[in-house]
Every structure is written in C-alpha cells, then in structure tokens.
Amino acid sequence: MSRVSEGARSVVQVMRGAFGTPALARLQLAFAASSLSYWGGFIALSVYAFNEAGAAAVGVIAFAKLVPAALATPATSLLADRASRRDVLVASAALRLGFGLGLAGAAAAGAPLAVVALFAVAQVIAQTAYRPAQAALMPQLASSPQQMAAANAVWNGLESAAFVFGALLGGWAIGALDPGAAFAILAAPLAVAALLLLGIARDPTPAHREALAGARLRDEALVGYRTVLAEPQLRTLVGVMTVSKLAEGAVDTLIVLVALDLLGLAESSVGLLNAAWGIGGVLGMVVALGLLHRGTLAAGLALGCVAIGAPLVALGVVATAPAAALALFALGVGYALVEIAGETLLQRLASDEVLARVFGVLEGTYLAATGVGALLAPALAHALGIAGAVAAVGGAMLLLALARWRALARYEAGAAIPEHEFGLLRGVPLFAPLPVAAVENLALRLDGVPMRAGENVITQGEDGDRFYVIDAGEVEVFVDDTLRRVQGPGECFGEIALLHAVPRTATVRARTDGRLVALEREEFLANVTGNQRSSNAATVLISDRLDGDAPARRT
Fold this sequence. Notes:
The strands form 2 sheets. A 4-stranded antiparallel beta sheet has the order 1-8-3-6. A 4-stranded antiparallel beta sheet has the order 2-7-4-5, with no helix packed on it. Helix content is about 70%, strand content about 5%. It is of the alpha+beta class. It has 2 domains: about 15-200 and about 215-410, Up-down Bundle (Growth Hormone, Chain: A), CATH 1.20.1250.20; about 420-545, Sandwich (Jelly Rolls), CATH 2.60.120.10. The model is unreliable at about 1-10 and about 550-555 (pLDDT under 50). It contains 23 helices and 8 strands.
C-alpha cells in the first residue's frame, strides 16, 4: 500500500511540474484544444468520405491530406528555428481555423469530395508548423530536464484525452448534424488555442539562431534531415517512431473497416473505438510518468512497440466488438509510451539551433508514414482479409521491438540531473546552443567552489585549468590591477585561457561571499569547441572582453 501511495504521489508531483508555470499551462491547454479539433475533424472526415465514396476513399483522403503536408514540413518547421516559436504556434492555429471554416462551407454547399479534401490538405499543411514549434519552445519554458520530460508526458496525455473527446464529438457531429455544421463545430477549438497562445510572452530569438533569419530557405530547410541522417541516435529514434506511425496510419483506416464492414456496427462505433484508443493513451501517460520517476523512460520505446503489436495480433485472431475495444485501449497505452519516450529523447539529443527542424523531420515522416499506411490498409485488407491485415500490422510492430530492443535500451539518461546546476548552465550563452543532453552531462560534472570576499579566484598570468559560473555572490575582474567589470550570478569567466591556450588574462577577486561552479578544461573544451554556434558565442564574448567593451553585467 505504501508503494502504491508513493507512486501516486510521485505521479501527481510530476504532473504539477508539467503545469509548473503559467506559460507551460497555457501551452498545454492550447495543444489540448488544437488536438481536440484535429481528432474530431479526422473522425468526421473519415466517416464523411466513407459515406460519399466507400472504404477506398477513406485511405485516399488520408493519403491526399498527409503526403503533401509531409513535403511541406522542412519549410514550415524552419519557421520555428528562425523566429518566435510562440508566434509560429499562433499563426498555425489561426490558419487552421480559417481552412477549417472553409471546409465546413464546402461541405455545407454540397461541393465535390475533392474540394472538401483540398481544404483538409491546407489545414494539415498549416498544422505541420505546430508540433515542431511546441516541441522546440517547451525546453525554453521548462526549468529542468525533469519538468521537460513531465511536460512531454502530460502533452501526450492531453492529446489522448483530446482524442477521446474528439472521437466522440466527431462521431456524434457527423452522425447527428449536417456535415457543414459538424465541421464548423470541430474547427471552433482552434480559436481557443490561438487565444491561449497569445497569453504566452513572446520568446526572443537568441543570438545562436539569429543568423538563420538571413539564410536562404533552400540552404536551411533540409538541415533537420541532414542532422538526423548524420547522427546515429537521432536516426534510430526517428526510424522507430516512423515505423510506429506507418502502423498507426494503417490502423486508422482498418478501424473503420473493422467496425463497419467486419463487425457490421453503426457509424458512431468508429468514434467509440477511437475513444477506447484515447483512454488507453491517458493510461499510457500515467505509466510513462512512473517510468520517468524511476529514470527508465527510454524503455517505453521498446515496451510501447510490444503494447502496439500484441493486441493487434490478438484482434486479428478474435475479431469481436469487445476484443476490438480492448485491443484499441492497449494500443493507446503503447503509442503513448512510444511518443513520450521518443519525443523527450529527441529534445535531449538535438541542439537548440536545429531542434524545430529535427522535430519537423519527425512530423514530416509521421505524416508521410501515416498517409502511406492509410493507403496500404485497404490493399492489405483485400489481400489478407480485414482480420489478417490487422494481425499483419501487429506482427510487424513486434518484429520492430525485437530488432531494436538493445539499441533503444542504451538511450537511458542515467543519473538524476541536478536541476539547479542545469538551469544555471542553460543561462550561459556559451552553452545555450548545446543539446539538452550535453548540458545535462555538464551539470553532472560541475564542482561547487565556495568563495570568500577578498580572495582571488584566479590570478592574472597563472595557468588556466577551469571555467567558472557564478552561482551566488559577486566578483571583480582586474586587468593589470585596473578594475574592468563586476560580475554576478549567472555570469561566467575563465574561458579565454582555456580556448586560446594562454595564461590567465585577468585576476578575478571575490567581492562578496558566494558560490561558484567550476568545469574542468577538458569537459569545457570538448563541448564548446565541438558545437559551431557555441564556439561562435565564445568568440564574441572573448572579443568583447579583450577589447574592454563588455558592460558590467554582460554575460
């Protein structure tokens, strides 16, 4: 009983952290509204297409929506690396609202299915900027890696909850209302999302991303793909998650066929079965929060693949309405684990300057894989039968888990990250461009150094062996016994001797009692010189200091 209570308390604490600031809370709630609109519209459009042109149209419409959007993703995800990520989110929600209302108008006017589908394509293209921008903004709003991971878990849980209510709302709306009215109601939550996002303070573009503003689109749009292909860990993560989305695209279509053709259920049952999937996703969030508390979140990738595959195989053998609901519930748990673990690891491993574009790669491959899966599902059903197609998709996911289990097990974060030290380093411009995982690694290697007023921390002319960040208190910097500046908490010193391999160029004396954190030469050089943007930030800082132009509080 005590273990259960302790686990429940830890889950509650993690969830509180995910809403730990007003900005994070607004971001999460805006996504919930956005996701409610998306999933409600998805269900309604699937049923609308089935009624208009049969089962094949469901797959064709999904393919027509998702593949063009996937092709647009390199350009749309670049926006969040070039500009304010909050602004990109607002623009995406507003555009989707406009296209959704256009879709509703086309359906109300009895326009051809192709015209309705065209508005749906435009909506999904506008949406491709949303998830990369949110994924890239979240590390900026979170105060620690733990809060970032918790926010990802709750983000996924909110999507699952929105999936439940969206599926129910979409199924009800398309069954009970005129199609035009149904699609208009399902677009309305996007207005709520835009208003919530406008309440988040606009995030300034940091120096290491400002250079992108003048870069050519064709030079930068594919950087995310090049980064993923060049880095084995990112490549493995995106590969596993993309295969899971290929299966999801197939299942999205197969659910309609299972409900309406195989089991002969009413149209509203499509929404109910999808709701079971969403409820499983909410439970998956709770399971993921428990894994997060134990430091084993990466195991969710492999376990999630198993939780997706096994129930699909079972449903292929026992095709009944209760079995379908149970299988989709388990499927929701599996997809929650895969997405929470995978997205958190991507945020840790990709550097800030390309973070939105790396998530753009994920979004693009997701959309393409979902569209291809939806297109393949009717062909699989024709060749193997509906039950056989469901079992085949499940078997593929089990094989994926078996093939990549060991590789995924190596992705665990390891020791708990000291939150205060992590936050301190993230505020230093030299480290801001680094991947979260690199800053985590540095935070684990910091040494605390107490300082006493009047004592020299470093002396001009001596060899340099450490880089320092001020945690508490103030220091005075003297060059040739002349006071050049005063520095306080969050500012740094000691980088010139390490990067230029010269003796200390200044004496740094404690002005007050306080505390420093120190990083050894090897760790500092390996991280700063190994990242181009970090190295550039160091060059600018050193140039300012050597020229004597740095203001008293400049970092």
